[in-house]
Amino acid sequence: MRPAGAWLGGTGTSLHSSGEFGLIARLRDLIERRTAAAGIPQGQIAVGIGDDAASLVPSPGCETLVTCDIQVAGRHFVPGWTTPRAVGARCATISASDIGAMGGVPRAAVVSLGLGPETAVEDVEAIYEGILDKLLDLRCLLVGGNVTSLEQGLLVDMTVLGEVEAGRAVRRDTGRAGDQVWVTGLPGSAAAGLALLDAGVRLGDAPPLDRLIGAYLEPEGRAREGRALGMSGAVTSMIDVSDGLIGDLTHMVEGRELGVVLMERSVPIGGDLHAAGERLGRPPEGFVLSASDDYEILFTMPGERAGDAVRAIREISGMPARRIGELTPGIPGQVLIEDAGGRRRAAAAGGWDHFSPDS
Amino acid sequence: MRPAGAWLGGTGTSLHSSGEFGLIARLRDLIERRTAAAGIPQGQIAVGIGDDAASLVPSPGCETLVTCDIQVAGRHFVPGWTTPRAVGARCATISASDIGAMGGVPRAAVVSLGLGPETAVEDVEAIYEGILDKLLDLRCLLVGGNVTSLEQGLLVDMTVLGEVEAGRAVRRDTGRAGDQVWVTGLPGSAAAGLALLDAGVRLGDAPPLDRLIGAYLEPEGRAREGRALGMSGAVTSMIDVSDGLIGDLTHMVEGRELGVVLMERSVPIGGDLHAAGERLGRPPEGFVLSASDDYEILFTMPGERAGDAVRAIREISGMPARRIGELTPGIPGQVLIEDAGGRRRAAAAGGWDHFSPDS
Fold first, then answer.
1. What does the pLDDT average to over B17-31?
2. How far is A289 from chain B (nearest CA, A)?
3. Which pLDDT score is estimated for A253?
4. B56 closest CB neighbour out of A53, A66, A146
5. What residues of chain B lie within 8 A of the CB of A151, using their CB?
6. Which positions ≥6 away from B201 have C-beta within 8 Å?
7. Nearest Cβ partner of B51 from A71, A75, A172?
8. Which of B21, B24, B66 to mutate to probe the A interface, most A CBs <10 Å?
9. Lowest mean pLDDT, pick from A25-34, A350-359, B3-12, B176-185
10. Which residues contact A311 (CB under 8 A, 6 or more apart)?
11. Which chain A residue's Cα is nearest to B53?
12. Selected residue with higher pLDDT from B349 and B40
């Protein structure tokens, strides 16, 4: 656990003086104002905030997706490194990402907040603003939640409901032998950002590194790209990158008859990752392979469908995606890394620290 | 906040030695074993535990209900007073209760657990056993979740999804002037149980008081009765009692043109509540009127439908229910208490402490 610091314990209206019911009323007003301003049709909401439960009308022919993610101060985010609004945005992005990685659309969310006595009401509102920034941008409604006091600290637990056409949910473990493995964006950015923060580098200290720090503090998420990939019909499996490239490739094959060969040369390493590696005295590949919560999308498909997948992403956002490997029979559950010379070595879920730094 | 105590910090396999992935694997095995043993058809689960999100097939013609409730050690339960299994059961009951109070059926749940380093793996498994005891008894499946470490303490955040026929969700604020107000069971039991625990009385210390302590530690919940009432078509509004009788009656009328008259003589007060009042030197009515999380069901209906409602409950469980008041025009948003002589006085959401002890 890292220290909490900064705005936990900052100035502002204390929860004690506002009271739980006062806070809930303020948050409800905030949600209603923001939702109305976003102009999102609420026809699917039969019962909204303020009853025992919310009630949603499913879209005909769709399945309901559900995922939850708890984020704890000192473990998943450090208040001293970020803003309350960015914390809220991060939580919403992480949960929405899981819906996108199933090929679905986020529709509605509920949030549980645990608040230490040092949290100011203004900061709680800013967390909600950040949540709403992301959710409403995805046209997903916040339909309920609850707030409780903690002895210390801060946590946000978000549950997002999504929808996907019946039978079209894209699983993580359904890729087939011979399928290509692709990834969006630049995985490893979040790990580098976190390492920079741990080393004392902050946003603005070294502008060329800001993208990496931002990737950790406020990941963009690829919920839209995941949805587009699912709808393209091209992909055979998908997962979002929350445990690092090796970790999530492992999730794609664990317990199966096939494995993954990751082509080392194909792994995208940007100039800023090289700069971060130099600054921290670490090989930049390490950030890509070991634990990193990037919320990029890993996906598989037969080579002949690659054009369809690339086109689907281009139409949504133009996010780059890149082929990095192949699902391969005969190496059950394994992830192997193939170097430029064609030599293969075993990777492990732990990632980079299992390899020699000069490999 | 109350102290944590007892099994937090007890013996057993520490989380540190088990590791997060080891724990998750154990919990997944546990869920699969219990679910298979319960023999619940899983046809509605398109994708279960172990992917980015679970996917559920909605029942045709139904809306999807969603509710979440976070329970924190020291605030909502005290480890020293109870068992891990009872904590899990309590959390599941509380969330399922909200679905029942909408007239719905709980179908699927996800759970986020936050665990301090002092929590033993065996205790986490026992919490899950308790959750599954309650959920599976309601034929509700546990389809996902996540576990995170905390610096200290323990918390459980449950989200339950339910279903209700389209347009049949029963709201809390739709009762009509002239409707009778009824409640199941014996509200106030949980408040008395908590007061006894606070005074040092434990389960088994005074057997005649055990029912009250049990009502707080492990409420039964009325999800089935709520569903039966909703399906009967007799009720005009429903809410579960989580803020005490006065608090939840207030929720039924706040911001509306009508109010509630609560008939003091009709409020059920059992022999054990009298005994608890005597032991603690407090009037037993106080437990009923002030904050108490009983998870009984408050409901309203026109008098001519009372027989249908009573019959619906009798067919499900035989739980007693009782008429305690009436929705009344001309007292907007108010809750009034009427004594045996027909005199009315104002109640307030805070409950008993707003009244003189000899009233």
1. 82
2. 19
3. 97
4. A66
5. 1, 74, 152-153
6. B209, B213, B279
7. A172
8. B66
9. A350-359
10. A232
11. A67
12. B40
Chain A nearest-CA distance from B146, in A, is 7
Written as one letter, the residue type at B126 is A
Poorest-confidence range of A37-46, A131-140, B278-287? A37-46
* Residues B140, B65 contacting (CB under 8 angstroms): no
- Do A112 and B161 make contact, defined as CB atoms within 8 angstroms? no
**Cβ contacts of residue A70 below 8 Å, gap of 6+?**
A155, A156, A157, B112, B113, B114, B146, B148, B157
Q: What would the mean pLDDT of B320-329 be, rounded to a whole number?
A: 97
Task: Give the pLDDT mean for A226-246.
Answer: 96
- Residue A172: pLDDT above 80? yes
The nearest CA of chain A is from the CA of B277 a distance in Å of 29
Q: Give the model's confidence band at B78: pLDDT under 50 very low, under 70 low, under 90 confident, else very high.
A: very high
The residue type at A40: I
Exposure on the CB side of residue B46, measured as CA atoms within 13 A? 22
CA-nearest of A32, A64, A112, A212 to B91 is A112
Predicted complex ipTM = 0.90
C-beta atoms of A53 and B75 within 8 A: no
| Strand, coil or helix: A286 | helix
Sign of CA dihedral A53, A59, A65, A67: negative
What does the pLDDT look like over A124-159, one tens digit per residue? 999 999 999 999 999 999 999 889 989 889 999 999
Buried/exposed code over B85-114 (b: 16+ C-beta within 10 A; e: otherwise): bbbbbbbbbbbbbbbbbbbbbbbbbbbbbb
Q: Is B164 helix (H, G, I), strand (E, B) or coil?
A: strand
Pairing of strands A45-47, B54-56: unpaired
Measured in angstroms, the CA of B242 and the nearest CA of chain A are apart by: 10
Spatial contact of B184 and B103, defined as CB atoms under 8 Å apart: no
- Which ranges of chain A does DSSP label H, i.e. alpha helix? 15-18, 20-38, 84-100, 121-137, 189-198, 210-217, 223-232, 245-253, 271-280, 284-289, 306-316
The nearest alpha carbon in chain A to B65 belongs to A55
**Shortest CB distance from A72 goes to which of B148, B169, B240?**
B148
pTM: 0.92
* Tokens linked to A344: 């293969």
Question: What's the pLDDT band for A18 if we cut at 50, 70, 90?
Answer: low
Q: Which of B51, B67, B75 faces A52 most closely, judged by CB atoms?
A: B67
Instruction: Select the residue of A69, A108, A151 nearest B66 (Cβ to Cβ).
Output: A108
Query: Which tokens go with A258?
Result: 């096939």
Strand pairing class (A344-346; A335-338): antiparallel
State how far Cα B68 lies from the chain centre: 12
In the block, residue with structure tokens 């009328």: B253
What are B287-318's pLDDT values in tens digits? 998 899 999 999 999 999 999 999 999 999 98
**Is there a contact between B98 and A52 if contact means CB atoms under 8 Å apart?**
yes
Whether B6 has a pLDDT exceeding 70, the answer reads no
